[in-house]
Amino acid sequence: PYYVGLNQNLFLQASLHSSDQNLTVFVDTCVASPNSSDFRTLVYELTKSGCASDSTYAIFPSPRSDVARFGFNVFSFVNRFPSVFLRCELVVCRYHDYSSRCYQGCVSRFKRNAGS
């Protein structure tokens, strides 16, 4: 466990370990839960489809394409849950493949109106 006070900035880094130097990594979705084995019942979305859901979530520049850096302000799930667990989905793409998911950034999909 990593102990951080409420409302402090938490900075994270995801690294891709591969012998292929032509890969890049992108943080697509991150959710938090008070339960390490249940990310469906009670969750808080930090980012979804590359779009920040939390106003404090931020992406930070990285010195290398195989490292993704991001952060947010620490929060808690009311007082009855002592811990917060993260689950993040990352996408790995070819470096400089601008048509890949890694280079699309925030992808918001809007539902169409089924009315007349």
Automatic annotation (TrEMBL):
InterPro entries: ZP-C, ZP-C_dom, ZP_dom
Key words, A-Z: Disulfide bond, Signal
Residues covered by the ZP domain: 1-109
Pfam families in the record: Zona_pellucida
Designated name of the protein: DMBT1 protein
Encoding gene, per UniProt annotation: Dmbt1_3
